[in-house]
């Protein structure tokens, strides 16, 4: 997979050189390049913003640097040439079409399912906006050549897109084959199947008077699996009941339903209407 990140603060993305993502880059599992948007400016002040048409507070990022930056990034990957072919062949493989991700509080919410979807694409470009945002014409122009996805990581506003990009790149890259040492560790993580992850414990078995649940020390793999399933159901019901509505009914057995009913009573109290 190829990832390009465009920012006026490329040093903000330095954490992408660390830990699992950094090792994945070293191994060649991930081609990730961070670009300084100011490299595509042509005045001595390296200006990337100007006042908004129509008035109002703040500044807007100019289209010229963004246009040249995207030309360079897409040209280097061959995507500009491919765009003409895609126009003539609309049934072309969508996985090969670049995706432009624009962090924005007005975008679709980025979820684990979004991360899985994007992990299957070949080329992702992240546009880190600042100030009041990027001139809309950049997005409109890019939409003719790429799949454009404005993305939000939550219902709040940040100073720029860099923090959101760090989160999204890590969520996507860790799903690529070879990035996580044991891929089975991904299977029961929070949000993978609509449930939150169960609590985890390690040695010692007693710490400051708190004991590890006895079932985890029993050696009975069936009981451990059932306990973990119950904990996932209870934690989801208590913390994120909104996620339960999206679960397919056929994914729950009678034990699951009993656990959820018990968690609901603990959370909301008994249903006096019954």
What does this protein structure show overall?
This protein has 274 residues and is α/β, with parallel strands linked by helices. The protein has helices at 19-27, 63-77, 79-88, 112-119, 136-143, 162-173, 221-239, 241-244, 254-268; strands at residues 2-7, 31-36, 49-50, 60-61, 99-109, 123-127, 147-152, 206-207, 210-211. The strands form three sheets. It has a five-stranded parallel β-sheet with strand order 2-1-6-5-7. Helix 4 crosses helix 6 (162-173) and helix 7 crosses helix 9 (254-268). It is elongated. Residues 86-92 have low confidence and may be disordered.
Which SSEs are present, and which pair or pack?
Blueprint: E1 2-7, H1 19-27, E2 31-36, E3 49-50, E4 60-61, H2 63-77, H3 79-88, E5 99-109, H4 112-119, E6 123-127, H5 136-143, E7 147-152, H6 162-173, E8 206-207, E9 210-211, H7 221-239, H8 241-244, H9 254-268
Parallel strand pairs: 1-2, 1-6, 5-6, 5-7
Antiparallel strand pairs: 3-4, 8-9
Helix pairs in contact: 2-5, 4-6, 7-9
Mean pLDDT across every amino acid position: 90
The helix/strand order is EHEEEHHEHEHEHEEHHH
Number of helices: 9
Structural class: alpha/beta
Whole-Å distance between the termini? Answer: 55 Å
| Overall shape | elongated
**Proportion of strand residues:** 15-25%
Helix content: 25-40%
Q: What strand line-up does the widest sheet have?
A: 2-1-6-5-7
Summary of the model, kept short:
The chain has about 270 residues and is an alpha/beta fold.
């Amino acid at each position: 997979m190829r990832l390009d990140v465009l920012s006026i603060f490329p040093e903000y993305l330095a954490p992408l050189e660390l830990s699992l993502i950094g090792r994945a880059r070293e191994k060649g599992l991930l081609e990730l390049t961070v670009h300084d948007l100011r490299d595509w400016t042509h005045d001595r002040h390296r200006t990337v913003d100007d006042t908004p048409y129509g008035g109002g507070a703040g500044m807007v990022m100019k289209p010229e640097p963004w246009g040249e930056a995207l030309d360079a990034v897409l040209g280097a990957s061959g995507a500009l040439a491919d765009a003409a072919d895609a126009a003539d062949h609309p049934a072309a493989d969508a996985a090969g079409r670049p995706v432009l991700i624009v962090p924005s509080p007005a975008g679709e919410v980025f979820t684990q399912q979004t991360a899985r979807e994007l992990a299957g694409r070949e080329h992702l470009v992240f546009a880190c906006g600042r100030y009041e945002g990027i001139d809309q014409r950049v997005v409109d122009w890019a939409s003719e050549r790429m799949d454009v996805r404005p993305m939000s990581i939550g219902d709040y506003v940040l100073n720029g897109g860099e923090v959101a990009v760090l989160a999204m790149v890590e969520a996507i890259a860790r799903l690529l084959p070879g990035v996580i040492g044991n891929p089975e560790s991904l299977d029961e993580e929070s949000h993978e199947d609509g449930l939150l992850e169960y609590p985890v414990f390690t040695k010692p078995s007693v710490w400051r008077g708190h004991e590890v649940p006895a079932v985890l020390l029993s050696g009975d793999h069936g009981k451990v699996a059932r306990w973990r399933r119950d904990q996932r159901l209870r934690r989801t019901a208590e913390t994120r009941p909104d996620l339960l509505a999206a679960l397919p009914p056929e994914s729950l057995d009678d034990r699951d339903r009993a656990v959820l009913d018990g968690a609901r009573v603990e959370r909301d109290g008994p249903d006096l209407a019954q």
